[in-house]
Structure formats: C-alpha cells, structure tokens
C-alpha cells in the first residue's frame, strides 16, 4: 500500500507579491527551495493563514536570496502581499517507509523570508 505523507514544508513565509497577469504558479526564493528540499515544477499546497484560502500550484525558481514568495495567475486572487502562508509538498511511499520518513520542515524569518 502507498500512502501520501508530508515531504517538505516552508512554515509561515510572507507573500511578497501577487501577480495576476502571470501564467500561473508560485515563485519561491531558490534558497528557500533548497532548504526545504523543493524543486522547480513540483506540486505544492499553499495555505493562507490570513484568510484560510487553500490552493495547489507548482513551483518556479525565484532569485536566490531575494526572499520572494509570489503567487501568480489565478492564485494571486487568494493572497495579498503581507499574508503569511504555509507551503507544503507531499510524497507517495509505502507504509513501512512512511513510518520512519522524516520530512524537511523549514521555519524562515517571517519578516524577511530569510533562513535563520
């Protein structure tokens, strides 16, 4: 049996931009991606702590060290710059592997989105 478990989490990052007229996705600072074991094109679940909105999209790389968290396209309607979000990805694994798997959870500075 395969189950889906949390693989990576950026806990409480601040949205820096919302770009309605971009094709779609979420732009994430490449330093944050590396720290959380996320890759470009990976599907993520985004939860907005300010208004309760939840959405799924995919990642594109943002400038390394910029602190960028930008929701693009239709997702831009679900956030405002300054909102605090949680970004999560999941992995499928067999039940025995899931019992011992340890996800990568990163707690950046919420004010700057920089690693602490």
Please, could you describe this protein's structure?
This protein has 116 residues and is mainly beta. Helix content is 10%, strand content 47%. The chain has 2 helices and 8 strands; from the N terminus they run βββαββββαβ. An 8-stranded mixed β-sheet has the order 2-6-3-5-4-7-1-8. Strand 4 and strand 5 (54-62) form a beta hairpin. The longest helix has 6 residues, at 30-35. The radius of gyration is 14 Å and the shape is globular. The N and C termini lie far apart (38 Å). The model has no long low-confidence stretch (mean pLDDT 97).
Order of helices and strands: EEEHEEEEHE
Number of helices: 2
Unreliable segments of 5+ consecutive residues: none
Kindly report the spatial arrangement of strands forming the biggest sheet. 2-6-3-5-4-7-1-8
Major sheet attributes: 8 strands, mixed
Radius of gyration: 14 Å
**What number is the mean pLDDT?**
97
Binned, the helix content reads 10-25%
Please report the distance between the alpha carbons of the first and last residues: 38 Å
Shape: globular
Give the oligomeric state.
single chain
Let me know the number of strands. Answer: 8
Query: What structural category arises from helix and sheet content?
Result: mainly beta
Strand content: over 45%
